[in-house]
Amino acid sequence: QVVVREPLWAASPLHDLLCELGEMDSLIVHECCEDAEALAREHGCGLHLSSRASVAAVRQRFDGLLGVSTHDRESLLRAEDSGADYALLSPVYTPYSKPKDTRRPLGVGRAAEASKGISIPVFFLGGIDEVRARECRVSGAYGIAAIGAFFGEGVKPRDVATSLIELLG
């Protein structure tokens, strides 16, 4: 799955990007994108919500794949109870894409404990590389999500889109 998250782009270039990536089965638009919910509907994509969003309110009007960012067990439980289809739990480690992030990383042990018994898939995010991905999977994560491990800091969105099209297309 690929989450398209680009808050600085207007809806029109995002629409064009989604058209380019349209053959992919699992595209998800992040709510920080302009007109995210409308774009997700138009392109048959999933929708990913920030940790501050009301999952239940969005679930009432959005039928597609719905995910949410979480940061602890309580927010995972809320996501599960509110109708989310999956959750991203972060930061597990200090994110490569946000080296100045001041949040205290959960660590793989606390992330595993927080997600234990949660019925929706929980993907670990933040500072995930090849070695840490294995640690996360062994600890019980449903899956992992990564940004900086693939693209690093300062990469332009269009370069990422081009790389994704080449890699997945």
Structure description:
The protein is an alpha/beta fold. It contains eight helices and seven strands. It has helices spanning 11-20, 36-43, 55-61, 73-82, 107-115, 130-139, 148-151, 157-168; strands at 2-4, 27-30, 46-49, 66-70, 86-89, 122-125, 143-145. It has a seven-stranded parallel sheet. The longest helix is centred in the C-terminal third of the chain and has 12 residues, at 157-168. It is globular. The chain starts with a strand and ends with a helix.
Can you summarize the main beta sheet?
7 strands, parallel
Mean pLDDT: 81
Which percent range describes the beta-strand content? 15-25%
Order of helices and strands: EHEHEHEHEHEHEHH
Helix content: 40-55%
Largest sheet: spatial strand order:
1-2-3-4-5-6-7
Low-confidence stretches: none
Straight-line N-to-C gap: 13 Å
- Which class of secondary structure composition applies to the elements? alpha/beta
Total number of β-strand segments? Answer: 7
Radius of gyration: 16 Å
Q: What's the total helix number? A: 8
- Outline type: globular
Task: Outline the fold blueprint.
Blueprint: E1 2-4, H1 11-20, E2 27-30, H2 36-43, E3 46-49, H3 55-61, E4 66-70, H4 73-82, E5 86-89, H5 107-115, E6 122-125, H6 130-139, E7 143-145, H7 148-151, H8 157-168
Parallel strand pairs: 1-2, 2-3, 3-4, 4-5, 5-6, 6-7
Helix pairs in contact: 3-4
